[in-house]
Design a protein that fits this description.
5-stranded parallel sheet, about 750 residues, alpha/beta, TIM Barrel
Length: about 750
């Protein structure tokens, strides 16, 4: 009877994480897996599978077509089987323990799903406050604030170059109070990236919360800094790294004492991701930064437990779905082992990961496709096991999100949680032969890359010698080249362009007007401030050591100091050994094609003219259609005018009269005035080209001697010289460099120099 009671209680009351962990540890000692026969199925051999594929490939080489190598140097197999990968399956690993490969918590998302942390970046504190509340009311579970560049740098709004450029503008404690007003910070986590140091914005928050009678000790989430990340982004820091490390240590100590649920170190991979890094580089370099922080904090006497609990990571999810899942699983495993080497207890080896879609993979052209990119990247992040996630609006590269784009972004979280059942099972990818194989492979590569940085003397030394920058630049160049050759496909940009697309309104903010309004609000606030009291508190900031800095800055904000005044008072003189490195510039992968399109659009707007393309389609539609469609899409990537036709055919009794018809149509030009075409493309089949090209190409060239003549398709073996001698200038095919061809046509037209 007692046993039945316990069973009923267990049904009504779910196990705690601790209880489940103990149960799993016991089961690990007694685990046995029965052999499940599949006698009713005939399992094909690998040889049979390859043979079946070869039939479908129709002569194309299996090894070339069915194996895919990615930027990480990992080759995807065409099929993953248990026989090949069974030895690496994590049959004795459990989530929330060990090396945390299978998840950072024992229950995964079952009891608590990932935090929905949609960034709120509206310029004015009041409107951002309203947005924060709106986001929570519509499903977000984390208050995530993004501040503008001036606020990050400690610059008052009146001195800001462009207030509100990347987020909310905060100059005084009144601004912070306005933004935080009515937020339930005791129940809902708060997230804020603070730039080089967390002390200043943390102090402003503390001052605002205390003024509002709120309990600072209840604050939880991330208010974190990444000074090396800012060094890499900008090439230098405003203070010496030692001074910034001192502030980092002070923030960790302060949080432990005053707000133990708050992480104050936010190590972000964004600077590497935006530079074009592949996944191995992204994780390895991010961990190299984090390890530098750990060592610097230990030098300053901090306990490894406190350091581990202060660190949060941000990883950017790219477009390679399975690789991104493997990346997150590998990252947890590697960090657990790094922290083990630093002497942490098991519980301190779990990493806290905030995820976001990689802005590098987004496009300005045909931006609605970004919704699909965001969907797959969110999906891979959740399967990979992030703790919190922000899904950027699809129009992030163009403008700040609006109600529609924010809703679409937020609803991807909601659908994954409530409609797709992604809160269970725990470790959704666990046991997948493909994902486990990729996880093992990328783990080994990340660890090797991390060791390279360690061997170079650590991340600062590797940044100084430029090896990190060069490695990322090489991958960026490879990505750009793959897009030019259309080996990588950006839908709507270098493939399948939408010629009817209307560009999104960027809705630029009136910076000068905003600056006036916000500056007036600051002036109004300062009018009631006791200047002597403010000066006294600023003097205290200047005299304060790192450990007393946050409290001193909070007092100064309370006394009415602005963020610029506090930043100036707290700044220490740069030391003689201040670090400067080559910065890693921000990019997104389609920027070169988008610039090309803008050149076309600008020329059209200025002159009303465009590159005009004539399709010399030979024979009936079935004969020329495939290559005519390919050539049209290829040239419309540059937003050029492609003039279509149904093909030129011989008149009865007049063989090869199709050539004269095509030449006559080309010579007639694009309109009644005879405006000439800028190029022509012969479209037909390999079987007809040996007859058509030598006979027709000279006629087309004679009809328009200044144009460029293309042949659609790569030339058959031994025929290129013949076709070029006939007048063909170049070839439009899957092997052609789309970008170079389009740029050349722009130059010939006079669009660009």
């Amino acid at each position: 009877m007692a046993e039945e009671t316990n069973i009923e209680q267990s049904k009504s009351k779910p196990m705690t994480d601790k209880e489940l962990e103990e149960l799993l540890r016991k089961s690990e000692q007694n685990a046995s897996y029965p052999d499940v026969p599949f006698d009713e199925f005939t399992v094909p051999t690998p040889e049979e599978w390859v043979e079946a594929c070869n039939e479908l490939l129709k002569g194309k080489p299996f090894d070339k077509m069915m194996y895919t190598k990615n930027y990480e140097g990992i080759t995807f197999d065409p099929i993953y089987t248990l026989r090949k990968w069974k030895d690496i399956l994590p049959t004795d690993d459990y989530p929330g323990m060990g090396d945390f490969l299978r998840g950072s918590t024992v229950n995964g998302y079952v009891h608590e799903p990932w935090g929905i942390a949609q960034a709120c970046d509206l310029t004015e504190p009041q409107e951002n406050n309203e947005l924060l509340k709106f986001e929570i009311s519509k499903g977000s579970t984390v208050y995530h604030v993004r501040v503008d560049k001036a606020t990050l740098a400690g610059v008052d709004v009146k001195d800001a170059e462009k207030p509100g450029d990347k987020g909310v503008s905060l100059t005084t404690v009144e601004d912070m109070h306005t933004m935080l007003d009515g937020l339930d910070l005791e129940k809902i986590p708060f997230m804020l990236y603070t730039g080089e140091a967390s002390t200043r914005l943390l102090a402003m928050m503390v001052a605002a919360l205390k003024a509002g009678g709120k309990k600072v000790e209840k604050l939880k989430g991330i208010v974190g800094a990444d000074p090396i990340g800012e060094l890499i982004k900008n090439g230098k820091t405003s203070e010496s790294l030692d001074a910034l490390y001192d502030q980092m240590a002070a923030a960790i100590k302060w949080a432990k004492k005053n707000a133990p649920g708050l992480r104050t170190v936010f190590v972000r991979s964004t600077v590497f991701s935006l530079g074009g890094a592949e996944s191995v580089q992204e994780v390895a370099y991010t961990y190299a930064v984090a390890v530098e922080y750990v060592r610097q904090m230990m030098k300053r006497g901090l306990d490894i437990h406190d350091i581990s609990q202060a660190i949060a990571f941000e990883f950017n999810q790219g477009a390679n779905f399975f690789m991104e899942i493997a990346k997150l699983r590998a990252a947890r495993q590697i960090w657990a082992n790094i922290m083990k080497e630093f002497g942490t207890e098991e519980a301190d080896r779990a990493s806290f990961v905030h995820g976001r879609p990689a802005s590098f993979t987004k496009t300005v052209i045909d931006p609605y496709v970004n919704m699909l990119r965001n969907c797959t990247q969110s999906f891979s992040s959740v399967v990979g096991g992030v703790n919190t996630y922000e899904n950027e609006p699809f129009d992030e590269l163009i403008r700040k999100g609006d109600t529609f784009s924010r809703r679409i972004a937020r609803n991807i979280h909601i659908m994954l949680q409530e409609e797709f059942g992604m809160q269970a099972p725990i470790d959704q990818a666990g046991g997948s032969w493909a994902v486990e194989a990729l996880t093992k492979q990328i783990t080994e590569k990340i660890w090797a890359k991390f060791q390279e940085v360690e061997a170079a003397g650590g991340v600062i030394a590797a940044l100084k010698d430029g090896s990190i920058q060069k490695g990322i630049a090489d991958i960026l160049a490879a990505r750009f080249k793959a897009l030019e050759l259309r080996k990588d496909r950006a839908v709507g940009v270098n493939m399948y362009p939408n010629m009817t697309e209307e560009p999104l309104d960027p809705r630029p903010e009136n910076t000068e007007e905003i600056k006036k309004i916000l500056s007036a609000n600051v002036d109004k606030y300062l009018a009631d401030v006791d200047a002597k009291e403010t000066d006294a508190k600023l003097a205290a900031v200047k005299a304060a050591g790192a450990d007393a800095l946050i409290d001193a800055e909070a007092d100064a904000f309370t006394a009415g100091a602005t963020i610029g005044q506090v930043a100036k008072a707290a700044a220490k003189e740069a030391c003689c050994c201040e670090v400067a490195v080559e910065p890693i510039a921000e990019h997104h992968w389609t920027e070169k094609f988008e610039a090309l399109r803008r050149d076309t659009e600008a020329y059209i707007a200025k002159t009303g003219k465009n590159v005009e393309v004539f399709l010399a389609n030979m024979g009936p539609i079935p004969q020329h259609k495939a290559r005519a469609d390919f050539s049209t899409s290829f040239l419309q990537v540059g937003e050029f005018n492609v003039h279509l036709n149904n093909g030129f055919q011989d008149d009865e009794g007049k063989p090869n009269s199709r050539w004269e018809k095509a030449a006559a149509a080309l010579k007639a030009g694009i309109d009644e005035a005879g405006t000439p075409y800028d190029c022509a493309v012969i479209c037909s089949t390999d079987a007809t080209y040996p007859e058509d090209v030598p006979g027709m190409a000279p006629l087309l060239k004679a009809a328009n001697p200044t144009m460029k003549l293309f042949l659609a398709g790569a030339p058959a073996k031994g025929m290129e010289e013949t076709y070029r001698n006939a007048g063909v200038d170049d070839f439009i095919s899957v092997a052609a460099n789309c970008f170079d061809i389009l740029k050349d046509l722009q130059k010939r037209k006079g669009m660009i120099e």
